[in-house]
Amino acid sequence: MAKGSNVSLTALSENVDSVIVGLSWTSPTGEGDADVSVLLVDPNGKVRSDADFYFYNNPVAADGSVQLLGKTPTEDGNEDRIGFDLTAVPPDVERIVVAASRYEGARFGELEGLRVTLADAAGEQLLRFSIDDAGSVSAFIFGELYRRGAEWKFRAVGQGYETGLAGLATDFGVDVDDEPAEAEGETDTVGTEVGGEPAEAAQPARPVPGQDPQPNLEAMPAPRQPGDDAENGPRKPVGRPRTAKKKVTLPKVTRKSLADNETWREARLFPVSVLKSDRDRETRATSVLLSVMAQVPEFGRRLTAAFGAPAGRMETFTEVALPHGDTPRRPDGVIRVERAGKLWTALVETKTNGNALKAEQVQAYMDIAARRGYEAVITLSNDVALEGSPLVDVRIDGRRKHRVALWHLSWAEVTHQAQLLIRHEGVGNAAHAWLLQELLHYLQHENSGCHGFQNMGAAWVPVRNGIDDETLCQGDPRALEVVENWERLIRQVCLGLGGELGQKALPVQRTRRGSDPGTRRARLADQLCSDGRLQAEVRIEGTPGLLTLTADLRTGRLRTSLDLPAPDQGSPLTWAKRLIRRLDEAPADLHVETLVEGETGGPRGTLERLRPEPADILPKNPTTRITGFRLSLIKNMGNGRGNAETGFIRSVNDAVNRFYTTVVVQVEGTAPRRTGAKERSGTG
């Protein structure tokens, strides 16, 4: 689409009662990020109340019309997705504005590849709007959905705001406070700055010949300019939007037990001790998950909205017999959502304990769903799907008018979403909180079989041996298999960190825009053959840099590291002393290295040696420019391909957790940071 153009959704697809809008961008440095937001606007161009403003502190509409789904990895980096159930949008809402904002002085002009995509309920992309002229603004309206009679249309807007998210929200009528809310149950800040250097204002979108003219341009507020409020006196500083909906989360202090001793086991809703076989585990896991989805609307909606399901009354079933040729098929589960008399149906195929999905089973369910007019098939296993690399190849009959979407969930993703709700964002009442807690206990039990990705594959040992004896050649398909499983492992590490911290943790993919993920993985496989190393970068919200993880298969060592930029003020000696003081409780074997401009490495030493003499970390030449400091922990990596005590996967998880809890948490304050998700929630 071109800027200012519009299109009817029904002209693109018959399946647009629910749509998913994706906002994406790339950063040349790999560190750029932004937060999405949505405003429901009435015919006067204003929100009806503050509840019509959706951002990270208010991500889900009570009626299910809007849900911020968070970021998902793509071949170019990450995509922030928003699910809209257009049948649930109140009739007095005329437009849905989709925007994003940057923070800490960052501008959209620093990002590349800004674009909006819109997909229908089957997951098929219907439109794309690329933006090349964002400019130096800190908030940006990407596009809007709006009504025309009984149908919905999409307009490519591309309009910037120099006053950030708070200024944009104010212009659309959101009530803002000058001070953060302190009352219990109220959430905290939006976390964007106001003001900054003047920026050139983006122009309103122009009409396109042959298409609808822009309706009610006055309802689209123009970006504020310096001096706009001069005649009305000094402008009141823009405060911080807040929401006041109280939710239940887990208590910070563990409740004291009344047990006589530690051998007493607390009674559980979902026991796991009786599970003896893989079939038992699959049946129990499916029933436990689907029952909690139906009973906890926030959780069920969180898992199904990304698959195009509407917001409505959900019912779930297990072991449903469906005719298929001479032999009936029994999918592990069925999910049905009713909205305004219409049904959305998905068949569920589940695997636990590392068992692989069977292509013939999934194909049969896709065929059944197509014949019966169902919307989706959802596969669920310990495996992690990769962009551009489907877990199961299925054949789609192009002659059928009805399309069925195939989606995959990892058990790690299910655990992640449950953790976010119960530990950080909260749910509607105490009963829902208890059900989610029981679900988490079940999923994390060693006998449940729902532990996520836990096997590096059959190629792991041959590749490791080939690197050892220098016989592994570039182009070996086994190296590509190891690279793909390494990527799965890193994505699972991010899910675990994000669930525990309540903050975004995402893998960083440094690729050119539009590059094929298969080509990128092939290049990394060749690199593994030549230097014997696997490397990944993770961006964790609130940390001053990227967490880098390197597995050196030649030496059998794992290195976790974090680069800290040099401060803008003070002397190098002051920087060194302050850094060593901050690391007072870090492990003594932590390596500290000075990063020097134009050189591959500067002075370095262990924390144990540097504590009495911080100056030892400084270059001998006082004119040498220091660009930052690198903190690293090194440990032996596991050799086995699995998740056992001596396995590679366990050693990676342990290395990341140790580095974050003993090092990263001590230096989080070395750079400005946004309020963490746990702090934003305002509840314990």
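Above is the first protein from milestone M3; the second protein from the same milestone is given next.
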Amino acid sequence: MNAPMETVFGLLGGLAVFLFGMNMMSEGLQKAAGAKMKSILSLLTSNPVLGVLAGAVATAVLQSSSATTVMAIGFVSARLMTMRQAIAVIFGANIGTTMTAQLMAFKLSDYIWLIVFVGFIVWFIAKDERIKNIGQTVFAFGLLFVGIDTMGAVMKPLAQSEVFLAMIEQVKDIPALGVVVGTVMTLVVQSSSATIAVLQSFASQAGPDGVTSVLGLAGSIPILLGDNIGTTITALLASIGQSRDAKRTAVAHSVFNISGALVFIWFVPVIVQFVQFLTPGPELDVIARQIANAHTTFNVVCTLLWLPFIGVMVKIVTFLVPGKGGEHDQDALVNLDDKIVGQPVFAIRMFGEELQKYCEKVRDMLTALPEAIANKDAAALKALKADCATVEAAETELANYAVELLSAGATSEKQAAEISDLMFIVDAVGRIGARCGEVSALYSERLSSKKQFSDEARQELGESAAMVAEMYGAVLQFLSDQDVASERVLDERRRQIIKRQSKARKDHFRRVSSQQCAPENKAVYNQLLLCLERAGNECSNLVEHGAELSMWGDSLGADRTDSRGGGSDELVEALA
């Protein structure tokens, strides 16, 4: 194989190993961090400083600013976060992503294979899932450096190539050309961390004099600025098909990096002096660390400059993406974003928020049912049937999203158990909504016939429906409070519903016998009572499983242990 092809294949192979290690490390860190990632969400308040901190921490854990940005866009689209909060998070993400470059600057060549071996052994042998995830993270961390070393080795001949040196001289003399090179590199690779790692590896090669860097810090910084511009394309692609506010959030990421690059490009000599002051030493020994520090300096300074002007940023992106924000599919009860299934902690949070809306919709249906029955309101009954179809569609969407979450391969066993518990709620509430729809359809059909129920029968039916609605509302409250006393009260309510249904059947049989009600109504009336009874039974099922489900609570920091040992301690937070 000739030398140029060997260089190209080596560079591509090293880059592939680096990206593989990066993705694996991100996955391992997420699984190892587990519930502690949820504390990041508690920082997402109206305070922009806390939003920046949340974005920085999330990106340091995820090891990808693109992942954090895509996540923020998904949250805006699902209305879990305002655009102002998301912009603060993106500012922080740009700081957090510099952690990767700082890690890459360490000189670990002598220990790479030891790290890979130890990580693999722990990952392969450990039985405890948390230890296994830590082993995976260490193994992936070693692969990062394997990729970097591979790229560095194949780049050495380039440092001696006259043609390549001539091209580098042009980049060093024309900073704008360096920005273009960095932008194109990141657009192709779709990872600023990878292109910065390539930049660090190449800049660490000695030039013709054997003493100074082939590229130098002054030639590296423009390429670094281009890397920061190129990474914004991921956010822009993620916003396609999302709400207008989500598009604005992605544009804010682009405005942040492009504006910073346009300002910094004029002060490259000043930045060089500042970074060299921070990291003195022989150029070849410290150039990788200097590039990492320049990257950190760029993002910290840009954040400090933009932070007081988040309101201005909102106005800019509103101007660039005009129209009313926050639009969604008005026919859809839930809005889920499949772009964040790779971050299960946050995806489960979103799932829980949408599930809560789903549960509340069924509560509204049950609340409206008794009045519609009592008033013989055909329009209200028709609306309830339409609501039933909406709930059914939402149930399908939630179920599909749960399957997508599990099949993404990023969930831990504990998170998989949470998703299973959440789906129990989806199924049970869906059946309650279906029973409500059946009652509406049956009663509406009876209203259109000549043989209608007597006033007494209609009153008893309405009372039964009201008892079920009251119990369902109490069940939702119980799942929130986990009050043992409430559990006993709910069990008593279930028995009362059964007694009420039994009495209603006997009363209706008496009315049919005394010809107060048409005999044709008996079967329909019993069917109506059976539907309500089944809805009450589903409420009982939710109560019986309540201790395990821990559906949603009012604290993101709650620590509850699942009675099965699998753990639903995060499930409280999922719907908080």
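Note on the second protein: DSSP finds 25 helices and no strands in the chain.
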